[in-house]
Task: structure prediction
Amino acid sequence: MSTLIDRREALRKTALLMGAAVSASTVAAFLQSCKATPELNYKPVFFTEDQATVVSEAAEIILPKTDTPGAKDVGVPNFIDSLINECYSAEDQKKFLEGLDEFDKNAIKVFGNRFIEGTPEERQDYLKKTHDDAVAAVNSDPKTPRPFILKLKELTMLGYFVSEPGATQVLQYVPVPGAYKGCIPLKEAGNGKTWATS
Amino acid sequence: MNLNLEAEKKNTYDAIVVGTGITGGWAAKEFSEKGLKTLVLERGRDVKHPNYPTATLNPWELANGDRPTQEDLKKQGVQNRTGYTVRQSSKHWFVNDLEHPYTETKRADWMRGYHVGGRSIMWGRQSYRWSDLDFEANAKDGIAVDWPVRYKEIEPWYDYVEKYIGVSGQAENYPYLPDGKFLPPMDLNCAEIELKKAIKDKFGRLLTIGRTAHATAPLPHTPWRGTCQFRNMCIRGCPFGGYFSSNSCTLPAAEKTNNMTLRPNSVVYELIYDEQKGKATGVKVLDAETGEQMEFYAKVIFLCASAFASTYIMLNSISKRFPNGFGNDSGELGCNIMDHHLGVGASGSLDGFEDQYYSGRRANGFYIPRYQNVGNDKRDYLRGFGYQGGGGRQGWGRAVAELALGADLKKLVSEPGKWTIGMTGFGEVLPDHSNKMTINHNKKDKHGLPVIDFDAEFKQNELKMRVDMKAHAAEMLEAAGVKNISTYDNIGGPGLGIHEMGTARMGKDPKTSVVNKYNQVHACKNVFVTDGAFMTSAACVNPSLTYMAFTARAVDFAVSELKKQNL
Result:
């Protein structure tokens, strides 16, 4: 166990360092042509650079930097790369990559470019449309197999809300609560936000 | 000087306890506190309280969001059948299935860990007393054999173990679920209070907070234990000693006496039977690390290795006297496998209470005790079931299939979602001679020992009961105004309840049972079996508390018999 945790800790520290680096590169990207391929803030193990970029940019649209950190800041792209690499079966990996490829290429029909080649606005609009259509489909028929974009959304949310900023800034988390109060006014339940873990 | 004699003397104790789980820990404490030099043999590695490697890790300190990797699943695919045990935070408490295989003539789910403390580290901690409804059931139904004891005989032992381990619960004066010596109960939450009212009003049924082996108040007799901190990370081991485990409670008590020798990495594979004396003289042990074979000797031997493991040792102990397995004159050894059948129930969402929430993480739920086939209630199946369940407000997961994205998504998930509530049935399994385990000599584990083969299945009575288990769960939720109710029924294999029992059953008659009313092997008075193997029937409540009560009682009996020189 300890080696695994050590490794995770090392990864986490790397992600933090990379997170610091990304602010600079984001600024750089902004100064460059809008068409420039966005830069990655980590070295993917499972994805190709292009695949990793699609995941990374999509994750940041799903959970962007606001007054709290964004998906990229907290290492979500790295998390997804690792999770799919280590936890998915070969079959599920293949399905995920097919979905990712289709998501990237379908953008051609919508705005004339692959997702990865779009402007930030084009990527944002395309992802939102794909997402909203998927939500409508699964809500009209719960038996619909979960579309790729919702799988990606779920992975993004998972990676984000198990991260320290996600769990403690957007949600709330107390390592050692010390007591249980079963039925109290919401405003008295810590800061009233959703608990990160149950 | 005879070297063998010297070695024999060195390896001789008053008592040997095989296993360090819930019953082994209790036997170790009771024997050593009564002054017996006690050797406690554990097949797995040592684990010392409070050193549980993942116990205080935060969510962001666990790789892959705590998910199992493909590599984990290759090694622990069978252990993962529960769906909740093979996680980065808990997988080290479960065996490597490649090293410790078993075979399945029919599907069987044997979930276990090889380490000091055994499953007392990962257990569900729910602690309920049996009533005479349970002790009399076999006799009344003409099923299997009668229990040779009734509640009155066990009641003081329930008192004894409850006071020591600490059981949190609410006294309810419900006839079929006797009250215990409770520490303060935990709270029900808003949704659960609503359900409690509704099922009382509409069905006259009881819902109570789970009775659980958590210290909700200090336990002065074990000052090294703290109280429950409501972290709900129990399966990782609790460094506070907030719940009962062998590691936090009984083993430290035994150690304090200086009478206990605890030997980890000691795989007991056979009892040594002396044909002249008509007694067991000791056990054969394989050192799990060195492969060295050893023998240890004692006046009395307690098998507390878990139902299947203790039964395996007995089946693997062949002598002239016992050609079919140790103490197996009845032919019942290895038979009558029981568990609880579960994985059936319902859940849904409850409108309202939006300005209400909870704080802390309660490692407990509610309990609806058995109401079927009691009083005037008659069903088309025997026995019955209880429900365990819980309510809560939805977390971030609910927003995956909602329209929110970006800043809106953050805002949405930061507000708690709807209240949801659900319940799962825990049903009694009838003892059936045809549900059995045997030793399969064609397959070996990593030590070269033959493995267990399981040939057991749920039968008609269980399947009939499940129809009610599913329907009643939905009806009760509906009565409380729960919406979007969905039901489920995934029976799994015997063992998935992790309450395996019955394979060396207790009874009055040596011709039809393996142990007597004091857990003493009928045919060999100095060997006792006090883990789940002795169970003559299963009831529908979680069994560990009952194992503890019988273990403490059996040690008391064994020591008095030793003093009388009857063993």
About this structure: Residues 64 and 303 of chain B are 40 Å apart (CA to CA). The radius of gyration of chain B is 24 Å. Chain B is about 25% helix and 20% strand. Chain B has two domains: 11-169+212-336+433-456+499-567, 172-209+340-428+458-492.
